[in-house]
Amino acid sequence: MKKAFTMIELVFVIVIIGILSYFAAAGFQRNTLQEAADQLVSHIRYTQHLAMISDKFDSKDQFWFLERWTIRIKQDLVYSGAYVPNGTYSNMWAYSVYSDTSHDGNPNLSEMAKNPLNGNQYLSGGYNNTLHAKDSLSMKELRLGEDYGIQDVTFGGGCRSTVPYIHFDYLGRPMNSYPTSYAYELPAAGWHKLLTSQCLITLCDKICTDVTANKISIVIEPETGYTHIQ
Predict the structure, then answer these.
(1) Where do the domains of the chain lie?
(2) What's the whole-model pTM score?
(3) pLDDT mean across residues, the chain
(4) Which residues of 36-71 are buried (b: 16+ CB within 10 A; e: fewer)?
């Protein structure tokens, strides 16, 4: 006698396939916060690597420490002069990796690190009048607001909330501190203090103070500079 599936068996099979398909599809959905954090961690580590292979000490320059490799996260990409301001980028978070050899507090093109995967690009999502976000030399991935929907970034713990950057010495030790009486761009005694406690960088898909915001935090350990996701 030839056997066949009954209607109820077919229904059960269809239901099971539907359930498995749902969980499989959910597994492929983007977690943009995680992606942004993973990328930022890798670039913080790369900045530390650059610092360790490039000792900036110069006994003839009292402000040599300003040239340490730095990763700076900045909101509000503003352009003027040769570039027409674009509202799309007016409140966008992006970051750059650079060594401030000119001591002017800003990353110039000649000071920016190159993308190790593409020598025609800089490790920057754009920076004021230095590198426009629409320029092919910039990296869309480093514009956290554009590629990952990051709406807010906060620094806390051992890092000052008003200093959204980290720089490293030749031993790979992280620094982010300065006397409260000085602007961080100005070379001043104590500006380059070592971290003494964990630096906490939080990425949010809304303003971080919003109780409904989804968040993810990156931790930079003092002394070692070991960077990881909390």
Answers:
(1) 32-229
(2) 0.80
(3) 81
(4) bbebbbebbbbbbebbbeeebeeeeeeebbbbbbbb
